[in-house]
Amino acid sequence: MSERDLRRIEVLSDVRAGRRTVAAAAAVLAISARQAFRLLARYEADGGSGLIHKARGRISNRSHNEGIRNYAVELVKTRYADFGPTLATEVLLDKHQLRIGKETLRRWMMAEGLWLSRTQRRTFHQPRLRRESYGELVQIDGSDHRWFEQRGEPCTLLVFIDDATSKLTQLRFVPSESTDSYFEALQGYLQVHGCPVAFYSDKHTVFRVNKPDAKGGQGMTQFGRALAELNIEILCANSSQAKGRVERANRTLQDRLVKELRLANSSDMAAGNEFLPGFLERFNEKFALAPARTENLHRRLNVQASQLTDILCHRELRHVSQQLSLAYDRRQILLERSELADKLPGQYVEVYDFADRPPEVRWKGHLLPYGVFSRDQRVSHTATIENKRLSHALTIVRAQQELKRPTTVLTSSAKGGYMKRGRKLYGPDYVEKPPAPKAVEICKIAKCGDFTHSHSTTATALY
């Protein structure tokens, strides 16, 4: 018997003993007085068992046949195992004429282990232990924020943090989270600390190729190519929780660093980057931890400065046409004629695109002089802009729109020198008018006083 049935037996016993009226019992049991009389009659006739619901333990009148249940479950198990209850219900009705409620089918699938409830589908992120050595794993990320509050424009802070010690190893303000920005921050990191074993990042397109089966490209990003040449591994986290150390550091910096910049009256990226080294040292003194193992796994950077610059830049292969031309970054590049360049049609050359100087075209280490045939400084129409770079892209567009003057579109006739003239009417009585006299002749006529009607009329018109 349920708790409700036991409560009814207790109250109705009081009614039979005269300690409670039927109206009071109905109020206590939250039922009508008529229902209270019915229950009292059943209690007096059959005792406590008479209060149990008559349908308890019986098969529902709306239940499905056991054969139908087994047939539907077998279909779902063999053909529609990947379908959810809602879609499987529609398919069974459409293809097999089985009208089954989706909640009924959900219960059947859960009983057979074909479907998990929302509670069963919950995933838990187990905490990951720190790496044991300094320089074994460095987490990197960019945080887009109003670091200078209303004193300056929003920008991005690139954060490098060691996984073993929670030590901030590199901080840099940049316009957006781009490949050039990470090249700049990586160069500063390598010159100070050396080469770590691996970097740990998110799935941003700077670090990971979203379409590995694309026809173009080398199968890796420019940042990945540079790390491969430096013998540094790049690993991408599957979730933000996996690289929680740098995520929590971003949240801490958005609180502490903003206040420090306000006290230092820093209002732009240049002043902020000058302030960061001192802040980084104070932050590490307070929050950095000792590693489990004392060895430092950073390797020495055995690369010259010029070679490091060649590594930390955009490098792409371009095909040279028979006219000694190649296309790069919406520009047509023409190689200058030389004994070496004349051998390059049909070959591939490598374009080195630096952040602080014009691009260079090289073939097997030889620098090739060139000229630019066409130059397009405009942001490409319908260009794909990532969310993290949208603010920076809009800033560039606004600056270009302010500098660009409106241009007049010329027609083909105007380009050929066509000048619009008045309309001429030609007929059978058309007589060509004599050319108008020159101004000198008119002056002479006026001086001598010989004014005829035609001369005076012409002179008046010209005056």
From TrEMBL:
This chain's protein is named: Putative insertion sequence transposase protein
Q: Which InterPro entries match?
A: Homeodomain-like_sf, Integrase_cat-core, ISNCY_transpos, RNaseH-like_sf, RNaseH_sf
Short name of one Pfam family: HTH_29
Single GO biological process annotation from the record: DNA integration
Named from the GO MF annotations, one term is: nucleic acid binding
Could you tell me which residue ranges the Integrase catalytic domain spans? 123-306
NCBIfam families, from UniProt?
A: transpos_ISNCY_2 (NF033594)
Q: Which Gene3D superfamilies does the protein's record reference?
A: Ribonuclease H-like superfamily/Ribonuclease H
